[in-house]
């Protein structure tokens, strides 16, 4: 099992000593390149979280000044997509932690601070990140990214025609796609249109392939363009495959059947059903 | 001859039996593409760069699809994959990892390094024929390959 590593961590902890210890632990495990931003108060954490896209939050449950780390996470989760969250506590009582955990669904793991050293923290980080990158069930999700609502409907109809268990989702542009991937279980396959407003398919490919958490998600470019320059460019940017949207519905159904046979039956997927 | 039959499939595998089986499976599946072999990662890179023993291929088009084994001597599949996907002149060639390994680490790492697909080598010949049929159908009929 490969150990997934976070790339940028937000640490909210009012104790400088604890922050130093955590920093040492993480750098020893993931190398000195791991970026860790340390906030001592909730307001500082908010400012940092607004300014950066973190791959993980490490949050101290208690803080010297209110709000507590728990209150901060509860508040922030209402309005913002969160990365995996690990909460650090001094609480020795499992029941008390359970009671808090039930009120904080955004938190993946609770770790008691005096047990961080024995590999507990790095194991929790690995699980928090891995679970985030796997779908909740073994039914694969196909995510369609296309700004043309008619095309999305046609593709969904064609996939439904196959009568197989897929979960279908769609987003209208690259910005929505990136938001989806930050907040939802990763799809087994992305069908990506090239020309979309705000953030197009090319920019999406660049963003995905440069993100350690997202780079392995299979992407099939599905475009009306049959131009070699678009096909070559799609592969150059890391598309797993490129197909041209057919002009008839029957051909679309056949194409969807071949695509899903290939990606969900023949190929060993990095995300679906694992 | 249809258009895609002019496309070369290149297989990199150190096991001569596997290479013969693949050749038979392609014939059985009526896949008539030109089919080349290399035995390890170093040969693969020489082949793709048209150097050493492969210098005389300089005027031939690059392969349209590479079937890559992970465990090979000299330079293994992981290293070759990383090198190819890091090379602006080669990275667009679709690479299908075809290996007996089912290790999670190999699967995830292959995709992270830019493999286009990961397929487990089957245990029976019939299954191999089926895989070759599906592979060639997907890549030559459904998908559009880079030029």
Number of strands of chain B: 5
Which stretches of chain B of 5+ consecutive residues score pLDDT under 50? none
* Share of helical residues of chain B: 25-40%
pLDDT averaged over residues of chain B: 92
So, CATH architecture of the largest domain in chain A? 3-Layer(aba) Sandwich
Largest interface, counted by CB within 8 Å of the partner chain's CB: A-B, 30 and 32 residues
Major sheet strand order of chain B? 2-1-3-4-5
Please mark out the parts of chain A with pLDDT under 50 across 5 or more consecutive residues, or reply none: 133-137
Task: Name the overall outline of chain B.
Answer: globular
Rg for CA atoms of chain A = 21 Å
By helix and strand content of chain A, what is the structural category? Answer: alpha/beta
Which fold does the CATH topology of the largest domain in chain A refer to?
Rossmann fold
Q: Taking strands numbered 1, 2, ... along the chain, how are they ordered across the largest sheet of chain A?
A: 2-1-3-4-5
Could you tell me the radius of gyration of chain B in angstroms? 14 Å
Question: Any idea what the CATH architecture of chain B is?
Answer: 3-Layer(aba) Sandwich
- Name of the top-level CATH class of the largest domain in chain A: Alpha Beta
Q: Provide the β-strand percentage band of chain A.
A: 15-25%
Major sheet of chain A, described briefly? 5 strands, parallel
Report the major sheet of chain B: 5 strands, parallel
Please give the domain count of chain A: 2
């Amino acid at each position: 099992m490969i150990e997934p590593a976070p790339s940028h961590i937000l640490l909210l902890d009012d104790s400088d000593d604890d922050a130093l210890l955590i920093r040492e632990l993480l750098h020893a495990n993931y190398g000195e390149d791991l970026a860790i931003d340390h906030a001592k108060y909730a307001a500082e954490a908010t400012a940092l979280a607004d300014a950066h896209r973190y791959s993980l939050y490490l949050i101290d449950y208690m803080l010297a000044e209110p709000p507590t780390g728990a209150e901060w996470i509860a508040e922030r989760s209402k309005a913002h997509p969160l990365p995996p969250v690990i909460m650090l506590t001094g609480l020795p009582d499992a029941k008390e932690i359970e009671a808090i955990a039930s009120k904080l669904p955004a938190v993946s793991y609770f770790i008691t601070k005096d047990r961080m050293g024995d590999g507990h923290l790095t194991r929790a980080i690995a699980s928090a990140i891995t679970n985030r990158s796997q779908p909740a069930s073994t039914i694969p999700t196909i995510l369609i990214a296309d700004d043309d609502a008619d095309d999305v409907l046609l593709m969904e109809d064609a996939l439904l025609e196959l009568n197989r268990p897929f979960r279908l989702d769609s987003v209208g542009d690259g910005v929505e796609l990136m938001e989806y991937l930050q907040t939802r279980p990763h799809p087994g396959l992305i069908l990506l249109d090239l020309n979309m407003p705000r953030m197009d398919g090319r920019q999406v490919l660049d963003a995905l392939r440069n993100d350690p958490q997202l780079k392995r998600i299979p992407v099939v470019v599905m475009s009306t363009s049959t131009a070699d320059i678009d096909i070559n460019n799609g592969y150059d940017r890391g598309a797993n495959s490129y197909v041209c949207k057919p002009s008839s519905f029957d051909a679309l159904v056949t194409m969807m059947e071949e695509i899903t046979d290939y990606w969900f039956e023949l190929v060993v997927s990095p995300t679906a059903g694992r | 001859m249809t258009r895609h039959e002019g496309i070369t499939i290149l297989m990199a595998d150190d096991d001569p039996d596997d290479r013969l089986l693949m050749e038979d499976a392609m014939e059985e599946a009526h896949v008539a593409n030109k089919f080349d072999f290399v035995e390890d990662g170093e040969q693969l890179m020489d082949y793709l760069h048209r150097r050493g023993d492969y210098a005389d291929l300089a005027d031939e088009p690059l392969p349209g699809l590479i079937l890559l084994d992970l465990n090979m001597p000299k330079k293994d599949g992981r290293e070759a994959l990383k090198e190819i996907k890091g090379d602006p002149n080669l990275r667009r060639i679709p690479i299908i990892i075809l290996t007996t390994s089912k290790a999670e680490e190999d699967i995830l790492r292959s995709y992270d390094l830019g493999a286009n697909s990961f397929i487990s080598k089957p245990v029976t010949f019939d299954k191999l024929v089926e895989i070759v049929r599906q592979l060639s159908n997907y890549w030559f009929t459904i998908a559009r390959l880079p030029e």
